[in-house]
Design brief:
The protein is an alpha/beta fold. It is built from 21 helices and 18 strands. About 5% of the residues have low confidence.
Length: about 700
């Protein structure tokens, strides 16, 4: 089929050829290094794990590639530590066998979700051991390590010290009989295993457990704290961090541990499965030679070590702060380790590390009124998403449109189905399919001559100035929010652009009558609409890569880079592919079937809604009815109203992210009332 695409520098994405050499940073360019929190290799991930780090990081990495920036996305399984040993014990296999098993399960799950790591590795490698030991020895050489002796639980029958997760006993605070060595599940208090009353060994509960003194190596976080505080403030300012549990809007340190004064933190553990503690050439080497490095020390080092397994030139990424910006994605429970603990280790190492530039965290995604629970069969875990028959694109869209950026979010089957039917099918998919089917049926699949010159369309165009200006404004908004890692807002902007496209078709009156009465205008509308679809293929690629690929097949066009303005890039005489529906309707009745299979009740929360899932009212004592699926043509007034709703929802989320006070609570209530009014106005427009 004939392709006629405008030729211009930067118009197309630069796609590495198969078997290409490793991606490396380029001097003088914006080089982006991305990591997502390494998942523990002792279980399968659930949807909350996926949106919290791997999926969000994937969106940002794909966005940067659509901007033709040198980008490297690294992740892998975190394989050492007590969690792995404990799970291996439960399954009756070795830690290595357990890690081999779950590494494959994780990789398969992420591949189905179209998460495009440049390299997905693991921490149980020789290079990981080498890099961990080198940093440890540098900490010792630089005077930041000291031994400390403390009482720990010891199993006389096993003949070894017991890590926290190998011990159970009575909670000293609430009396719960099955408290773990690190935390009581009943009162949620953090524990030290030595505090447990009548401790039991999980290997065999009849074993005798006693207290014995063990010596471990500690890193002097107290000595490093002044350097760490200075680094945090500079990094937060430079990388425009969002307020988090460590630092606030005013660049004030708010982490309780730092305000109280950091204390030395352990770097070693009495385990078998882990990185062996290397010698320091000191008297205490002998007592350390049977120990391994603590998992919270070695896990963050997994980022550079996995990169080292990807390329021998890994130091070009990790010792290059002048040319590389490091973006790290994780859940809120990992903030301390990425903003305080690991940067302290890097500072103590005293080499010129690439350190954190921007931190992107999420709150928790809950499931249908409760928490995900594997043991209680509540929620969707790993490969189960594929078994629903819902495509990876729809899963990605819904999870990202409800991404818990400033408050916990709730997964809802009803809202997921509404997002597919109302937004993807009736808005985005309708626009693409309507234009391409018209070209196929009325122009035999060949783009007609519009008399538009190749290149940017003028915002002063006599016919379409409003349309072109609206698209250009939204394109600038998309670039701005994506560069700021506001991923949910970026997705809302993509959908707003497709709404503008639908409105353009309606206001232009694209149909057979226009083709007969004004063939030149009809050709012009078709040309501008298909070029907007070409733009949308680039904008949606980070969020729904399979959908973007399908659009490009139907356009018969190569991948486009993200533009700053709407242009005529697909030229007259270009032959398109066969139009196909991008999405299919999901029956509302499926929500109950999914709940029956995956647990959960139909529960609505009072959080601000996303563009994906409009909030629905619920009468007390009555089962909530699913929102009606709007199946008519989107008018410009509806489009404007949905954009208002999106902006209002983001405003509420921003307010909720601020410190609580009577003033902010009152403002939130006021803005929620405004949101309800806007949604009622939209409903009236759709019913009229």
């Amino acid at each position: 089929m004939a392709q006629k695409i405008r030729s211009a520098d930067g118009l197309l994405q630069v796609i590495p050829s198969p078997g290409h050499s490793a991606i490396l940073p380029k001097k003088g360019e914006t080089n982006v290094l991305i990591t997502s929190a390494l998942p523990y290799c002792n279980n399968v991930p659930h949807l909350g794990n996926i949106i919290g780090s791997t999926l969000s990081a994937d969106v940002f990495s794909r966005y940067n590639r659509t901007r033709n920036r040198p980008t490297l996305y690294i992740c892998g399984t975190d394989e050492y530590g007590t969690a792995t040993e404990t799970q291996a014990l439960k399954e009756g296999i070795t830690p290595r066998e357990l890690c081999d098993k779950y590494h494959v399960l994780h990789k398969e799950t992420y591949e189905w979700f179209d998460i495009g790591f440049d390299y997905f590795g693991r921490t149980s490698t020789p290079l990981h051991t080498e890099i961990c030991q080198e940093i440890y020895q540098n900490l010792g050489k630089n005077g930041y390590l000291e031994p400390q002796s403390k009482d720990q639980t010891y199993c006389e029958d096993c003949g070894r010290f017991l890590a926290d997760r190998f011990v159970e006993g009575i909670c000293p605070h609430c009396g719960y009989e099955d408290a773990r060595g690190d935390q009581c599940d009943s009162c949620s208090r953090t524990l030290d295993a030595i505090e447990l009353i009548k401790p039991r060994c999980l290997v065999n509960k009849s074993h005798r457990v006693v207290a014995r003194t063990s010596t471990h190596m500690y890193v002097k976080l107290d000595t490093l704290q002044p350097q760490t505080e200075e680094w945090i403030k500079n990094a937060a300012r430079r990388g425009k961090w969002s307020p988090n549990s460590v630092i606030n809007h005013d660049l004030e340190i708010i982490d309780a541990r730092m305000k109280a004064g950091l204390v030395p933190a352990p770097l070693t553990r009495d385990l078998v499965w882990g990185v062996p503690v290397p010698p320091l050439g000191r008297e205490d080497d002998e007592v350390m030679q049977t120990k391994v490095l603590y998992v919270w020390y070695d896990a963050p080092i997994g980022y550079p070590s996995i990169t080292a397994n990807y390329t021998p030139e890994w130091k070009q990424w990790w010792f290059n702060p002048q040319d590389v910006n490091l973006y790290q994605f994780m859940g809120k429970d990992n903030v301390y380790f990425h903003t305080v603990y690991f940067p302290s280790i890097q500072l103590g190492d005293k080499r010129d590390w690439t350190t954190l530039f921007h931190l992107s965290t999420t709150e928790y995604l809950n499931y249908e009124g409760g928490k995900f629970s594997k043991s209680r069969n509540r929620g969707v875990f790993g490969p189960q998403a594929k078994e629903t028959g819902i495509s990876s694109s729809v899963w990605r869209y819904y999870l990202l449109s409800t991404r818990p950026e400033s408050a916990d979010a709730m997964f809802s089957w009803a809202d997921c189905i509404t997002a597919n039917n109302n937004v993807l099918l009736n808005n985005f998919g309708n626009f693409v399919n309507r234009v391409l089917k018209f070209i196929s049926s009325q122009y035999q699949g060949v783009v007609p001559e519009s008399n538009d010159s190749p290149g940017p369309l003028s915002p002063n165009d006599p016919d379409d100035s409003v349309f072109i200006s609206d698209v250009n404004r939204l394109l600038q908004e998309y670039i701005t929010v994506m560069d700021a890692v506001k991923l949910r807002q970026g997705l809302h902007t993509v959908m707003a652009i497709s709404q503008v496209g639908n409105g353009y078709l309606q206001s232009s009156g694209l149909n057979k009558a226009l083709m007969t009465s004004n063939p030149q205008r009809c050709a012009q509308v078709v040309s501008r609409a298909i070029n907007l679809i070409y733009v949308l293929s680039a904008l949606v690629e980070p969020y729904m890569p399979a959908t973007a690929k399908a659009i490009l097949v139907q356009l018969n066009a190569p991948p486009r880079a993200v533009p700053e303005v709407l242009s005529t890039d697909i030229l007259a005489g270009h032959t398109i592919g066969k139009p196909e529906h991008l999405f299919k309707k999901i029956e509302e009745s499926m929500a109950d079937k999914f709940r029956e299979r995956f647990g959960g009740n139909e529960v609505k929360t009072e959080v601000a809604p996303s563009a994906a899932a409009p909030t629905k009212s619920k009468a007390k004592g009555k089962k909530e009815a699913a929102a009606p699926v709007f199946s008519g043509e989107m008018t410009q007034e509806m489009i404007a109203k949905e954009t208002e709703i999106t902006q209002q929802g983001d405003k509420i989320r921003s307010l909720k992210a601020q410190p609580k006070s009577p003033e902010t609570d009152a403002q939130v209530k006021e803005e929620v009332e405004t949101l309800k009014r806007l949604k009622n106005e939209l409903a009236q427009l759709q019913s009229s």
